[in-house]
Design goal:
The protein has 487 residues and is α+β, with helices and mostly antiparallel strands. It contains 12 helices and 27 strands.
């Protein structure tokens, strides 16, 4: 059958993409090569901005209790106290827990997940994409208007689409495992050891400890041949502690390879998450940036399918997210070199420690690592919020006296035109534009900069302000939501 969208991969990014699409009425299906959900947990933390993305869809509370994650760049701690905003991420959350939450959400929305379906080929057709697969009942083919590859760093979709994946090859090998029954000192941001080695130990839930080890000189390993004693032996050589008695729930290995796809879109095929960018999990960025890819792409693709997208809207996905992926790859390389080069890097570490003691430097690095510092080119103007996300926790007091957060207003996945009543023409501008909600109220706390009217995209980013924007509101509405419907 022909669907609107096929999403390949039922990890956090694929599930978030499917949910974002279905929230807006798109007929979407998820293909997953594994026959059953895995309990593997490659990701165990996510950034502040990713937590905000979940909050914008009413999902953050479903994860239950979390704990704040400290920030560092290449092992150099960043003091987040005293910054203008809270940049702490969330840690100790197994990827399995995040996937389970997202899977429950997409099931509620009615998205089918076809497990045991491995994509083997694709070809573009007139007005769509044909996807060949091997399923439980043998080979088959499905068609859709669009295909989104969320199938990991070794992405089949990316390879079949012929999209290049430039970057650096991995030269260092790391071990990672989830272990129970051990009692070791926690090293939550990692502990650097002489000669360029590193160990990390972080609590997950239910008595599980996430262990990461890099022993200087260890080359990349074959994942299939890795056993727990390899990691435990290395841990004991580096720390003098034995964890051999622990029960290994999951073990894997990774490298310091860092890449970003040359294109996030080729025709009707899109890439998101690790399919589009890979980097060592040194700063809890991979899952986080992938979820933000999904939130950026979902509303744009849905608007296109519904026939209400303005010209060029889909092209802004690559324009906005590719720059983030390239910065991620650059940051990861820099952080790994800073952390693991050994004594030769000590002078640079010393300078970095001095620099991050200055608030401006700490704020810049914290914004880069929390993803709160992302700014898109969304229009000309001088308002400091233009192109940045509107903090989801910011409150409005409505006409009836009730208070609501920006995050709560974004649960529907619609855009927002928020006015304080200073611009009486805002309602007229919003008329006839689907998936745009007009909200009138007053800011519960006076903004640092005047903000009488603000246009917020469905992903939470500010596309227009009054005062502050040089363009007319109608031009911004047309650019992001298409022309108003005519009677």
């Amino acid at each position: 059958m022909t669907r609107d969208v096929i999403v390949v991969g039922a990890g956090p990014v694929g599930l978030m993409t499917a949910g974002e699409l279905r929230l807006r009425g798109v007929d979407v299906v998820v293909y997953e090569r594994l026959a059953a959900p895995t309990r593997e947990s490659r990701g165990a933390s996510f950034t502040r901005r990713t937590a905000e993305c979940f909050d914008q869809r009413g999902l953050l509370g479903r994860l239950g209790a979390t704990e704040p994650a400290d920030s560092h760049f290449g092992g150099v701690p960043i003091d987040l106290r005293g910054l203008a905003e809270d940049h702490h991420g969330h840690r100790g959350i197994s990827q399995f827990r995040t996937e389970r939450m997202l899977e429950e959400w997409v099931f509620e929305l009615g998205v089918p997940i076809l497990r045991g379906h491995r994509v083997t080929g694709l070809r573009e057709t007139d007005g769509g994409v044909a996807v060949a697969f091997e399923g439980p009942d043998g080979p088959g083919e499905d068609t859709a208007g669009y295909l989104v590859g969320c199938d990991g760093g070794r992405s089949t979709v990316r390879k079949l689409a012929g999209i290049d994946f430039p970057g650096t090859e991995g030269v260092r090998g790391f071990f990672s495992a989830d272990v129970t029954g051990i009692d070791t000192r926690k090293r939550r941001i990692g502990e650097d050891l002489p000669g360029g080695s590193m160990v990390m130990a972080m609590d997950l839930e239910n008595g599980v400890t996430r262990i990461v080890v890099h022993e200087a000189g260890t080359p990349p390993r074959d994942r299939d041949s890795l056993v727990f004693s390899d990691l435990a032996d290395s841990w004991q050589r580096l720390t003098g502690e034995s964890i051999h008695h622990g029960e290994c729930r999951w073990i894997s290995c990774f490298t310091d390879a860092s890449r970003a796809a040359a294109q996030y879109r080729r025709g009707r095929v899109f890439l998101a998450g690790d399919s589009a960018h890979i980097q060592p999990p040194a700063m809890a960025q991979g899952l986080s940036v992938g979820v933000q890819d999904a939130v950026n792409l979902g509303w744009k693709l849905a608007a296109t399918i519904a026939g209400r997208a303005p010209e060029g809207l889909l092209d802004t996905y690559h324009a906005e997210r590719h720059a983030v992926g390239e910065q991620l790859a650059r940051n990861a390389r820099a952080a790994i070199e800073l952390r693991l080069t050994g004594a030769d890097m000590d002078p640079v570490r010393g300078i970095m420690s001095e620099l991050v003691a200055h608030r401006d430097t700490a704020e810049y690095l914290a914004g880069m690592l929390s993803n709160l510092g992302i700014r898109y080119e969304l229009g000309k103007g001088d308002h400091p919020l233009l192109g940045r996300r509107l903090a989801p926790g910011r409150e409005l007091t409505l006409a009836d006296g009730t208070r609501t957060r920006v995050a709560d207003l974004l649960h529907t996945g619609h855009g927002l035109l928020i006015t304080t009543g200073q611009d009486d023409g805002a309602a007229a501008h919003a008329t006839g534009r689907t998936c745009l909600d007009l909200v009138t109220g007053t800011w519960t706390t006076t903004p640092d900069e005047p903000l009488d009217t603000v246009l917020v995209r469905p992903d939470g980013y500010v596309a227009w302000t009054a005062p502050g924007s040089d363009d007319e509101l109608t031009a911004a509405l047309d650019r992001w939501f298409g022309p108003a419907a005519r009677d």
